[in-house]
Amino acid sequence: ESGDRLRRIFLTVAAGFLIAAAATLLWTLTLPGFAAPTRTIIVGSPESAAPSKGPAYLRGETLYPRTALFTQDLLFLFERDVRFAPVVAPGSKDGSIRYFAELPPPPSGTDKASAAPVYGDPRAGHAGVLMRSDLPGSIRQLYGYAGLTIEKPYFVLYRSPVTMRWPYYVIAVQLLLGSL
To answer: Minimal CA–CA distance to 104: which of 126, 122, 135?
Structure first.
């Protein structure tokens, strides 16, 4: 009798983890889709204070020397390196940041621990999907330790749908493993 009760408890917990994993994967369907940008956000303009999420073209000055590298792992099987750089109003010197852009992957053969290579004109724009307050926590802390202030709310422009959805995939796999 106590063995049956314990088995029911474990099956209930496993079912809960499976439902949570499925819900997490379904939640990725609510994220904005990647399409051609329909609007341009100029950093520092009055319209850039609180834009809505979705496809966008972001214009401002990209601070390439302030690029942060974030490694995303999935069960020691997959590893992805993602780079984020602050985008500020041209000529801004106050140290506060409201926008970040995911940068393209570094050229092949580039050592990921090296300083961030310059990918182009710092004033060139970025196309992708804008999300609100979606920067990994360790990246926020890194910029704080560097003396930069991240404004609230802040926005992240993702250039890759995989990068935007990856944290949800990691959570879903962890929940799936928890159900075992």
So the answer is: 126
